[in-house]
Design goal:
2 helices, transmembrane helix, two-stranded antiparallel ribbon, four-stranded antiparallel beta sheet, membrane, alpha+beta, 152 residues, transmembrane
Amino acid sequence: MNEDEIKVSKGRIHTFYGLSIFFLILALILTNIFDLIGFNHTRQLNRYKENLTSLESPRNTYAIGAFSDIGHIDYSNGDNCDYIVGQLFETDLLREEIIKFYSGVSIPSVNGKHKTDVNVSFFEGKSLNGRLVYQIQAFEDSIESGFDIRCS
């Protein structure tokens, strides 16, 4: 190899390393941006769940679980995030008492700009303790996803 060929070879190696480092840094930046976007939605979901689970419960009612999820839940078209949160209860009360207790109850929306209604649904049968089992839930859809891949 003569001197010119060595210079060309070294130039190609430097270009390769330079491009490799550039694309590595670009990948890290994009990964962090998507992590931050997901973090914001997760933070909003946790606050939404806390708003629901901190509601007062009727007397003789026991919380037995809670859930929350974010994603493209309503199966519609579009680039949006749907939020659902819920809490499961056992109670000695009647269905009518539970419905009356939660009538008109709402929690702050995901973005805090309005209120979201709290819905009640009942499970068939009774718990092992012979109590009525029901859940309360709140659902909000069409929140801008901001490139959160869970919502695509």
